[in-house]
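thread: overnight batch results

M.L. [08:02]
morning all. the overnight job finished for the chain we discussed friday. pasting input first so we're all looking at the same thing
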Amino acid sequence: MSVSDRKSELRAHLLKRRNAIEYNDWVSKSKKIVAQIKGLPEFKSAKTIHCFVSMNERKEVDTHTLIKELINSKKNVVVPVTNFKTGELEHSKLTTFDELEVNEWGVLEPENVDPSAGGIDIIIVPLLAADLHFNRLGYGKGFYDRFLENEKAIKVGVLFSEFILEEIPVEDFDEKLDILISEKKTLRRNNRNLVS
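M.L. [08:03]
and the structure it wrote out:
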């Protein structure tokens, strides 16, 4: 079986597992993860934060409250906008949560792109699973890999603890993360006791 096929099989299995998380568990775990994000020194010092808008009906870690707090803070908040024609992510400064509209994948995005946010300091990245080598399993379309490839910002993956695996299948274009945050712990790629 090819690496791509192994990833697809694992992805299907993990999506079912994540969808089966009880609502109250999802809310509680998401709140703990957001609290850990806000506690990161890199987050506190960041001027511009790029954050995905979670698909809550698919039980991604809920980022809606975090984004609303960022909008009301002195930080710039930037969210991704999917360009289906080019296969690239565009990025828009967000000034109100109400300007988000559902795209063809069911993801909330700004209708109009406002790229005037300047350099990004930290990126909160969506994912389905990750491993102790800080590899990320996304949804298979490659949008984030293409975006992260040339980004110097700190890359933070957020996920529930049962989706941190020992190892996931990896292809050459897969981008590693710098930090993983679950409801139980924060892992840094430069920790000596972890494989990097």
